[in-house]
Structure formats: C-alpha cells, structure tokens
Design goal:
Elements (H helix, E strand, L loop, with lengths): L1 E6 L7 E4 L4 E4 L2 E2 L3 H10 L4 E6 H4 L3 H11 L3 E5 L5 H4 L1 H9 L4 E5 L8 H7 L5 E3 L3 H8 L25 E2 L8 E4 L2 E2 L24 E2 L2 H13 L4 E4 L8 H14 L4 E6 L6 H9 L2 E9 L15 H13 L3 E8 L6 H14 L3 E6 L7 H8 L30 H16 L2 H9 L4 H14 L1
Parallel strand pairs: 1-5, 1-6, 6-7, 7-8, 10-13, 13-14, 14-15, 15-16, 16-17
Antiparallel strand pairs: 2-3, 4-9, 11-12
Helix pairs in contact: 1-7, 3-5, 8-9, 9-10, 12-14
C-alpha cells in the first residue's frame, strides 16, 4: 500500500502552520509538519509512505496533482488550517480526480469536530474526518495497528522531510531546525483554547499525557543523528512538569549532547534553579503565554501568572542568558483601547526580548466561542475565513464591546509599533540578526506595521 501525506501549499504567499493544537499563517517561520512526521513514523511500518511538504517547498496544487498521479497512492492524508480550509480542501478533489478509489483523510481538530456535517456537505470529496488521536485512528482506518500511548510514539520521520527549509525567527538560531512533541493535551483550562476550553471531543481530549525524559532523549538523539542542530519543543506548556524538565536537562548534560533548543512555558512553572539547568542543557529561548486577555494579568489573577511573577521569571531567564518571547492576547469581550494600553504597559515592564500580540480567535467548539456568540460579538460565524489573529492580513472574526474588528487590527498595529519601535529594543533586534533571511523577515514585519 502507498500512502501520501501532504502539508498543503502556502496561502497568498504566507507559510502556514497546520497542527492539531496550533494553526495560523506565519510571517517569520516555516515549521515542519511534525504531526505528519509522527504519523509517517507509524504508517511506514506497514506501507510505502511519502510526505510532500508543499508549504516548505513552495509547491502549488498543480505540483500536488502531479505527485499524486506519479506516486499513485491508495490513501492521501492532509492537514488544514481554519484560515486556509477552502484552499486546502482542494487536495481531496484533486486526489479523487486522479483516482476515485483513493481514500482521502483530513486531519483537523480546529473546525471539523464542531461542525462535521457542515464540512462534509461543503467538501464531499473528503472521505474521513479525523479530529483526535491521529496515531491511533488513522492507522485503524487503513487497517493497521494504531498507537494510543504517547510513550510508544515512533521516531518522527524527519528523513522524509526537507529539513533544511525549516526556520523560525522566534525559535531558531541554527539550522537545520526541527520540532518535537513531548506531551499532548494541556493541564490548563483556558476558555479560548481548543484543548483546555473545548466543548467538543477533539485533539487528545482534556487529559494531559506526556513522554518520559528518557523517551524525549531518544527522539533528540534521533534528530541529532540526522544533522539537526536546533530543536523546538512544540508542547502547549513544556515546563508544566518542572521535575521532568530538570531530569531531561540532567540527561542532556551528562550525555554531552550539543544543540540549541527552545520551548513554550508559563512564568509560574519556572524557578531560577530550573532555568539555570535549562541554560546548561542548551536552552536559549522560552515563549511565555503571559496574559490571557485584557483582564487576567492586569488584575494579577491569571492562574498564578501575575505581573510580578512574569517579571521575575523573565528576569531570571535573561540573567541566565535565555531569551524570552512573550505572547499577549487582544480581543477579549471587554477589550478597549484603555485595556490595550494597559497590556502595552505590562509588556514594557516585563520587557521580553520579543513579544507577539495576537488577536483572539473564537474557534467553534470552545467555551469562548459560545460566550462571544451569545453576546453578539461574532462577526464572522465560520465561513472558512477570518480565523487567524497573527500578522497576516486577515480580519478578526469578532469584535469587542468597545472595539470593531477593524479597530482591533489598528490596536494590534498600535501596540506592536509602541513596543518595538523603542530605540533600545530595536537595537537589540537588529543585533540578533544572524542571516539575510532573518533580515528579510524583519523587513516584512516592519512593512506590516505601516
């Protein structure tokens, strides 16, 4: 049996992240399709498997058609992002036109779980919708044994990917770059999140499952043997289990493994001892999800991530040579220009190396979606667009009690300009440039701010 896994093309010139817990247009990165890599690691045990990363290779739908006709797969598996749903779904139609016997399988935890019948009606060429546990469900659809336990995940099939194409201005300094998944689910219950705040069954559910430090070390060694020099741990909150982090760091140090890595964390999960160990083990960057909307951090009530704690954690990281990227959210129902300015003030006090200010995305099937819709603040009620809050030219799918969708975009540009166009931070950003590609990414970002 031949199986073709596809990461669809870019969208309007933008690279796209399409993962079960994260999907957005990207201005300063090209991420590897890590879930497809793990899935290929399972399927290659039973079939001939190929991955076409059209996003990284900048291939178009005609190229995908050519690949399908030449490879002649019995199954085509592809991912989507909400913003690019309609474009990405063409893959099923292309596959069926090449051979109507091909099984078309969509891996999507963002939209399909909340409205499967609507997706099937709009895109009838998709045979199967898989919204949770792909390493268990997709092999089962094809007649193969699946894997339920995360500790038994296979090594990701990075040898099937164009690893030299991947980079991230935020998470990489050295190439080749790769990412790993060391846990699924999330211990937190943020109401906007498709994992913690889900009202439908999706992803890996609300149960947090994580790999042991020894299992993570095995996957790290696999990547290093492929020539990878920089790793991003793609988990929701890699630092949620402090003891696991310290155990992994100790193993990396003892084995003398040399690579750079970055991760997602929360300020309230770290202390200076852990941060020092992370630095010794090669960590150079941590992303903190610091503020959940216009109220949480500013009222010092955000599940332990207070302004004081955030400032302390960032200070610990920067004193020990670890850069911090802070992620702030705009667009909660009560957001106004006054709260936007309060968020800006908090960001300046925390003073991370980099910051991103994203506009809230009310995904169907989350508690926040229901709240936004009930309050009449949903302006784009799922027409396969408007579901991206990153700097990629998409209008938000919501307004707030005080700001229109357009005003939210202007507020986002305002806060980016005020944060980044400070002389001290601008100088630090310029000095961080390592290659021509990073310079071009910064110039594209500056163009967005105009």
């Amino acid at each position: 049996m031949r199986i073709l896994l596809i990461n669809p093309p870019r969208f309007n010139g933008h690279a796209v992240v399409r993962e079960m817990r994260c999907a957005n247009l990207a201005t300063v990165s090209i991420f590897p399709p890590i879930e497809l890599a793990y899935l290929a690691g399972v399927l290659r045990q039973y079939a001939e498997v190929k991955i076409l990363d059209a996003n990284a290779l900048d291939r178009n739908f005609k190229d995908i058609e050519t690949e399908i006709r030449q490879f002649k797969p019995q199954a085509v598996i592809f991912t989507i992002s909400p913003t690019t749903f309609t474009a990405d779904a063409q893959i099923a139609k292309i596959a069926k036109e090449a051979d109507d016997q091909i099984k078309t399988i969509l891996l999507d935890s963002h939209i399909s779980p909340a409205m499967p019948e609507r997706v099937r009606q709009n895109f009838p060429k998709i045979d199967y919708l898989v919204s949770r546990e792909p390493l268990l469900e997709i092999p089962g659809l094809l007649g193969f044994p699946g894997i339920a336990e995360i500790e038994n995940h296979p090594l990701p099939a990075y040898d099937l990917l164009p690893v030299k194409k991947y980079f991230s201005l935020s998470f990489t300094r050295k190439k080749p770059f790769a990412s790993l998944i060391t846990s699924v689910g999330c211990p937190n219950r943020c109401n906007f999140c498709i994992i913690g705040g889900a009202t439908v069954d999706r992803g890996y559910g609300k149960i947090w499952k994580f790999k042991s430090a020894s299992k993570i070390l095995e996957e790290i060694k696999h990547l290093l043997n492929l020539g990878i020099r920089s790793i991003y741990f793609f988990d929701e909150t890699f630092t949620a289990d402090r003891e696991r982090v310290k155990s992994l760091c100790k193993m990396i140090i003892e084995k003398g493994l040399k690579f750079e890595w970055s991760c997602n964390g929360r300020a309230d999960t770290l202390d200076e001892e852990t941060i020092k160990m992370m630095k010794k083990a090669g960590c150079w960057n941590v992303m903190f999800g610091i503020e959940c909307g216009s109220e949480g951090l500013l009222k010092e009530a955000n599940k332990g991530t207070t302004l004081t704690k955030a400032m302390e954690a960032v200070d610990f990281c920067q004193k020990n040579g670890i850069k911090v990227t802070a992620s702030f959210m705009l667009g909660m129902p009560e957001e106004s220009m006054e709260t936007v300015k309060q968020t800006l003030d908090a960001a300046k006090k925390i003073n991370p190396h980099r910051a991103q200010f994203v506009i809230l995305t009310p995904y169907p099937g989350t508690k926040l979606y229901d709240e936004i819709k009930e309050k009449g603040l949903l302006v784009e009620d799922y027409s396969f667009s408007g579901y991206d809050g990153y700097c990629a030219g998409q209008m938000p799918a919501l307004r707030t009690e005080y700001l229109t969708s357009r005003e939210l975009v202007l507020a986002q540009k305002y806060i980016y300009r005020k944060f980044y166009l400070r002389p001290s931070l601008w100088l630090r950003t310029i000095l961080s440039i390592r290659n021509f590609g990073q310079l071009m990414d910064i110039l594209r970002f500056v163009k967005y701010l105009k």
